[in-house]
């Protein structure tokens, strides 16, 4: 085998390895959809489509890639986590999203939830208070081609008034109460999902519907989230 043939053979093996690796991730996502989501009642076609097509392994630290599709949360640094796939799907489904929606997310983290939302809606505006996470998520989402997701470093309590009103708002950190600025920035008829509860007690996932200036809330089930962080 001459050098040119050897080089072509080596490239073919490398490319074959990449394809096998990617196919393995596809299979893991399909298994995740069946056993973790559909088996627990997730039915929304848009949510299932998005969870199937967002590569979760791209949003976890390299040393945890092999665990990316497991049934649980994973650390992403700075004492933050990427949520369990079921929770990501449930919160997404709860918002009753449409393809034309403009969505605000509070708590970007690694950018995974924003990417899931971005596969469904027209535009996503996501805020992260930890600068390193905000910058890395912004770069990651850009490199993966999520052009309809905009990341901002800042205090999510105040929302993003310049981009309001929003059809839906998702908060991925436990708050002691629903921030009033977020309610103000939610459209009439819009939905919000947010973990709410005392910092030293049980936190419940809460769905919020804004209807003709009335706020209708419903406790869904107890959850565990990192605390809602504020600028001092």
UniProtKB/TrEMBL annotation:
Keywords: Cytoplasm, Membrane, Methyltransferase, S-adenosyl-L-methionine, Transferase, Transmembrane, Transmembrane helix. Signal peptide: none annotated. The gene is pcm. It comes from Arenibacter algicola. GO terms for biological process: methylation; protein repair. It is an enzyme of class 2 (transferase). One of its GO terms (cellular component) is cytoplasm. This is Protein-L-isoaspartate O-methyltransferase. Belongs to the methyltransferase superfamily. L-isoaspartyl/D-aspartyl protein methyltransferase family. The active site is at residue 83.
């Amino acid at each position: 085998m001459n050098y040119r043939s050897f080089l072509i053979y080596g490239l073919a093996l490398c490319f074959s390895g990449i394809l096998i690796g990617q196919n393995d991730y596809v299979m893991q996502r399909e298994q995740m959809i069946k056993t973790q989501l559909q088996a627990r009642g997730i039915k929304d076609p848009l949510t299932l489509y998005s969870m199937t097509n967002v590569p979760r392994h791209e949003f976890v630290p390299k040393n945890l890639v092999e665990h990316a599709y497991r049934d649980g949360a994973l650390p992403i640094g700075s004492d933050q986590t990427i949520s369990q796939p079921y929770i990501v799907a449930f919160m997404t489904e709860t918002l009753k999203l449409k393809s034309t929606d403009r969505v605000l997310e509070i708590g970007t983290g690694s950018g995974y939830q924003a990417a899931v939302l971005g596969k469904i809606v027209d535009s996503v505006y996501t805020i992260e208070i930890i600068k390193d996470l905000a910058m890395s998520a912004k770069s990651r989402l850009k490199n993966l081609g999520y052009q309809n997701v905009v990341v901002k470093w800042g205090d999510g309590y105040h929302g993003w008034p310049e981009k309001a009103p929003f059809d839906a708002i998702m908060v991925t950190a436990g708050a002691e109460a629903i921030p009033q600025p977020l309610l103000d920035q939610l459209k009439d008829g819009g939905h919000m999902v947010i973990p709410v509860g005392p910092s030293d007690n049980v936190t419940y996932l809460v769905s919020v519907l804004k209807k003709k200036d009335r706020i209708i809330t419903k406790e869904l089930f107890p959850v565990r989230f990192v605390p809602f962080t504020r600028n001092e």
